[in-house]
Amino acid sequence: PLALGLYTVNAIYGDTITMPCRLEVPDGLMFGKWKYEMPNGSPVFIAFRSSTKRNVQYDDVPDYKDRLSLSENYTLSIRNARISDEKRFVCMLVTEDDVSEEPTIVKVFKQPSQPEILHQADFLETEKLQMLGECVARDSYPEGNVTWYKNGRVLQPVEEVVVINLQKIVDKSTGLFTMTSSLQYMPTKEDANAKFSCIVTYYGPSGQKTIQSEPVVFDVHYPTEKVTIQVLPQSSTIKEGDNITLKCSGNGNPPPQEFLFYIPGEAEAIRSSDTYIMTDVRRNATGEYKCSLTDRSMMDSTTITVHYLDLQLTPSGEVTKQIGEALPVSCTISSSRNATVFWIKDNTRMQTSPSFSSLQYQDAGNYICETTLQEVEGLKKRKTLKLIVEGKPQIKMTKKTNTNKMSKTIVCHVEGFPKPAVQWTVTGSGSIINKAKETKYVNGKFSSKIVIAPEENVTLTCIAENQLERTVTSLNVSAISIPEYDEPEDRNDDNSEKVNDQAKLIVGIVVGLLLAALVAGVVYWLYVKKSKTASKHVDKDLGNIEENKKLEENNHKSET
């Protein structure tokens, strides 16, 4: 490289400067010398080398003590390059007849340290010009320049908005420069999270270069421009019994720490932090809620609806009614929105609501009216009706001849609640029959039956008794040998009476025929005799068919 047409050597600060003597060695060379020129042009010799004796001598120059080295080809090396080494050096080759000179310019370069942003502001305030910080780059040569950047774009000076001041200080002992650039800045709200940095531009041996500082983000303070109120937790629905929190926030930085809350039913605003807690809210908490800054300058509002669900069951609890009575039942709902109602009886969902114009035993049970509020999770109510249907014992007796023609089944059909106790007796003798079988008690009904094989006409009595009443009903049963119309078990009482009348008529006809065919006196005597002994031939349980057969055989022998 050339400087003003002269040969130039570029050196890095602290490295070794190497300057070749760019003259051809002439014949008859006596010695070679190096010198540098003072600013006033006067020479200072620093090194000498003889071509014959091969010895090297260095002049007593303090700046170059122990730093010089002159090679055989007269190349001069200077160790630990300094800024003061930037001079014009001259190589001289001397013969007996001539002196040849060739100058070399030395340029020294020093890269500055990475710039740092020092004395940073703790925070920036909008609408206020303030010192943001100082960008410092040290130990540069030659001097460099500093440029400020925001988000990667150059900050240009703007009066009262961007003010930049650059200072360059040189260290007299080293000759190195320190550049300090201060930045005064008026931020806006948009400068929150903005990245500020600075770049130092300097010159090196190969040309212009740059080094960038680490970016810095400043906390920008700005006033609140908007207040917002919200309800926590952020559920779409609120129901009675919930806990809710009102949170008020401002968009300033730093955000406001205190607010005024306006609560329905409260005459004065409530001063609080940014939250206001409401526990176990009721339906009367429904309304408009507001919050504002403490100076009431800004306000926001929200509407809260507290959903509720009331259920009134009439009647409820345990209710006892008599069979056949009417019982109006109503399940009334009061709610904040449409509710779904359904009924459950004895753990089974009902298709329709219960209605009782004439209570029956099967109507008894546990009824539940349950309601839920649509789209409100967890809001459900239920009430229970335990219905007891009581009734005095009702009896209907039926009889039928079994298929083997050897016995008859007598059934006592009983209704009533509480469940009646049933007892069988033989009318006249008062004998109690203990071998009755009962069916399952369902919906207030069950049956008690006995199996007998009577040789003579008998009258059986069925007694049903509960806490309400004692009911007694009797039924005439003909002997096995006497044909009669059997009654199906499902006939009603009127039919039973008619069948009994028919049976009595048939018996009378049969007896009349017998009286006509036999001697009246003999027949009457036999009939009286049998009537007196009739009860002796009926076993106490009237169900032992084998013993009845034996009695029949004995009676037959007696008649004979």
CATH topology of the largest domain: Immunoglobulin-like
Low-pLDDT segments: 489-507, 522-560
Number of strands: 44
> What is the name of the CATH class of the largest domain?
Mainly Beta
Largest sheet: 8 strands, mixed
What's the total helix number? 3
Report strand %: over 45%
Please name the CATH architecture of the largest domain.
Sandwich
* CATH superfamily (homologous) name of the largest domain: Immunoglobulins
Mean pLDDT score: 86
The helix content, as a percent range, equals: under 10%
Quickly describe the structure.
This protein is mainly β. It contains 3 helices and 44 strands. Helix content is 9%, strand content 47%.
Brief descriptors of the model:
disulfide bond, 8-stranded mixed beta sheet, Immunoglobulin-like, 560 residues, cell adhesion, 7-stranded mixed beta sheet, 5 domains, membrane, single chain, mainly beta
